[in-house]
Amino acid sequence: MVFGVYTGPQPPPKQMHEMNQEEQAEEGARKMIEFMQSCPGKTAMAGVSGFFLGGFFGLFMASMAYDAPSGTNAASHISQLPFKQQMKIQFTDMGKRSYSSAKNFGYIGAIYSGVECAIESLRAKHDIYNGVSAGCVTGAGLSIKAGPQAALFGCAGFAAFSTAIDLYMSSESAAPPANDYDE
Predict the structure, then answer these.
(1) How many whole angstroms separate alpha carbon 130 and alpha carbon 163?
(2) Residues 140, 152: contact at Cβ < 8 Å?
C-alpha cells in the first residue's frame, strides 16, 4: 500500500546480500535519515552538537580567564613558577573548563530536544507551543534541586528564551542576509 492505496502484491524486500552497491548505499542512507528524524536520533544529535559547541565556548571563556586557574588559591604563587609549569597549569585548567561547559551544553541540548520531540509526537502538531513547553520542562528540570521557586523561574526563563529563538527563526518579515550578488 502506498498512501493508503492498494497497489497489488508487493515483492518481498531484498536482503542486503542481494542488493548491488548502489542499492545498499540508498538503503543505508534511508535508514540514517529515518534515525535522524526519530526522537532518539534528534536527542543524540542535539547532545553531541551541544557537547562540541559547549566545548568551544568553554575553551574560549577559559582562555579569557587568564588570572588564576579555577580551584586553586595560588594566584600569587603561579607567577613564581617556571613558564613551562605555568603553561601546563593553564592548559589543564582550560581543558577542565572546556569539558565542564561541553557536558552542560550537551546535557541541555539533549534534554530540550528529547522533550520537544516527545511533546511534538504526543500532540501530533508542529508549532511554537512544543518549544515553549520543552523550554519550561527543561528549565524546571535543571533547577529543581534549588527548590520550587527556582524551578518556576527556570521554567519561565527557558520558555521565554525558547519562544524568542523560535519567533526569530520563523520570522518571515526579516530581510535575508546580504550576499555578494546583491551589490
Answers:
(1) 10
(2) yes
Q: What is the pLDDT at residue 86? A: 83
Between 102 and 20, name the one with better pLDDT.
Answer: 102
- Compute CA distances 136 → 119, 123, 141, 144, 157, whole Å: 12, 16, 8, 12, 8
Q: Cβ distance 54 to 105 under 8 Å?
A: yes
Rg (CA), the chain: 24
Instruction: Give the predicted TM-score (pTM) of the model.
Output: 0.71
Side-chain-side CA neighbours of residue 154 (13 Å): 18
Question: What's the pLDDT band for 14 if we cut at 50, 70, 90?
Answer: low
Residue 45: the pLDDT is: 93
Burial of 142 (0-12, 13-18, 19+ CB in 10 A): buried
Give, to the nearest 10 degrees, the angle between helix 39-64 and helix 21-37: 70
The grid coordinates listed for 50 are: 551541544
Q: How many Å apart are CA 52 and CA 98, to the nearest integer?
A: 10
Number of Cβ atoms within 10 Å of the Cβ of 19: 14
Looking up cell 588570572 gives 67
What is the reported pLDDT for 108? Answer: 94
**Per-residue cell: 63:** 582562555
Whether residue 150 contacts residue 144, with contact meaning beta carbons closer than 8 Å, is answered with yes
